[in-house]
Amino acid sequence: MNPAQKVIIYTDGAALGNPGPGGYGVVMLYGEKRKEISEGYKHTTNNRMELLAVIVALEHLKKENLHVTVYSDSQYVVNSIEKKWVFGWVKKGFKGKKNEDLWRRFLPLYDKQQIKMVWVKGHAGLKENERCDELSVIAANAPHKHIDKWYEENADAD
Q1: Which residue in 22, 25, 73, 128 is the catalytic one?
Q2: Catalytic residue at 111?
Q3: Domain limits at 75?
Q4: How far apart are CA 25 and CA 61, in angstroms?
Q5: 64-119, pLDDT tens digit by residue?
């Protein structure tokens, strides 16, 4: 396999209060290239930010059929994908499941790449995971944040 076809992604999400102000951080490595991405939201949850980090990273990929390894400290995200839970949720129309909007946004991206999710222990000194944590907390604390419209409109339904 051509090394240029391999992408390494680290992601993290944070919510101060959970729910509360939140943010996500992403570090993408592709050959010699490195990209950092982060955004903050006024009112959201940690799980939403963990999942959104993965989604945004995948949306930034310009090519399809890449070998993508995503490192996340979110067992919710990693297990939902690696253990194929999300595909069962689709068959059941996401009945009783949270974050349907984000999972539906994720699924077409998943089909475009060859994705392997890897769980890493958070705050264990892994350089890129620590950087994602910094980015997500900075974004959650930033004065200008986005509105997680779906969450705010549906939080009572969860």
Answers
A1: 73
A2: no
A3: 3-152
A4: 16
A5: 999 999 999 999 999 999 999 999 999 999 999 999 999 999 999 999 999 999 99
Q: Which residue type sits at 11? A: T
For residue 158, indicate whether it is catalytic. Answer: no
Model pLDDT for residues 13-52, shown as the tens digit of each residue: 999 998 999 999 999 999 999 999 999 999 999 999 999 9
Q: What is the CATH number of the domain that holds 109?
A: 3.30.420.10
Task: Check 17, 123, 153, 158 and give the catalytic one.
Answer: 123
Check if 156 is active-site: no
Asked if the structure places residue 157 within a domain, the reply is: no
- Please name the residues in contact with 93: beta carbons below 8 A apart, sequence gap of 6 or more: none
Model confidence band, residue 4 (pLDDT cutoffs 50, 70, 90): low
Dig out the tokens for 31 from the structure. 């050959």
Number of domains the chain is built from: 1
pLDDT over threshold 90, residue 158: no
Classify residue 22: in a domain, yes or no: yes
Is 12 annotated in the active site? yes
